[in-house]
């Protein structure tokens, strides 16, 4: 395995008595997209601010391309998109990107391509003050892509984007990852990151509750596969007596089983095929997994 672009080890950071981050360890490899999920106040922005060098942890360490946060080498290696972007209203989109390209020492010749890639070529010569929130967010993404940074740090980057723009956003970060950038983004939208990131980390009350691919998290949570059975009229009682499960209504049964028992349950249902109208099988999704790993929220106190 190559050296991680971002390496966080045993990070602890407090605001007074509040422990905002508690022994958090994470790493992101080149070309990898890691999504950080967590409720409001879980510590996501605090973690990003520590990676940026804006906040100092009281314990643990962070390395950005092996450099300490806030050093010139670390700042050159990463670009950041904050949750709420703000640009000078009187500058045009092109002038904003020209300005940030200058700051990063990146070629201005690349600005037109960036504007086109984020769908802002037609608006490029208009002042940003006349743009919609979604357009400004897309300009923020273009700004974050300047100079092909080794680490892209994106704090709730799709808030304010419509569904089509969200899809396009994830296509653009997939391209950045394919070129070798490490992508570390936070989100509240579980469905959104499910098929669009390589790994997921779940932060709750400042602690990392789980981290891995969706398959690994699903296995760790040992959540059941749910089989939805619709019966022919009058057949539900007999089928429930034979196979168990919960009645959802007069002709619908829900049967939970371990993922590796799914085929044998389906085979048993096949023996009763004359009683069946339909079957749906639902594997646990990220929403179920997220709920499982963040359920400590209501019971723990981190002060
Ligand atoms: N400067 C600060 N001073 C005191 N407490 C703070 C400060 N910044 C954050 N906190 C607290 O630290 C905890 C984590 O906040 P943080 O902003 O990192 O959460 P978050 O996961 O980004 O939340 P959200 O999804 O709402 O943006 C919260 O309890 C917050 O109130």
TrEMBL record:
Keyword Acyltransferase attached: no
| Keywords on record | ATP-binding, Nucleotide-binding, Transport
Q: Which InterPro entries match?
A: AAA+_ATPase, ABC_transporter-like_ATP-bd, ABC_Transporter_VariousFunc, P-loop_NTPase
- Is Nucleotide-binding included in the keywords of this UniProt record? yes
A Pfam family reported for this protein in Swiss-Prot or TrEMBL? ABC_tran
ABC transporter domain mapped to chain residues: 6-230
Task: Report a single Gene Ontology molecular function.
Answer: ATP hydrolysis activity
Recorded hits in Gene3D superfamilies, A to Z, give: P-loop containing nucleotide triphosphate hydrolases
Q: Which CDD domains match?
A: ABC_DR_subfamily_A
Tell me the superkingdom of the source: Bacteria
- Its protein name is Nitrous oxide reductase maturation protein NosF (ATPase)
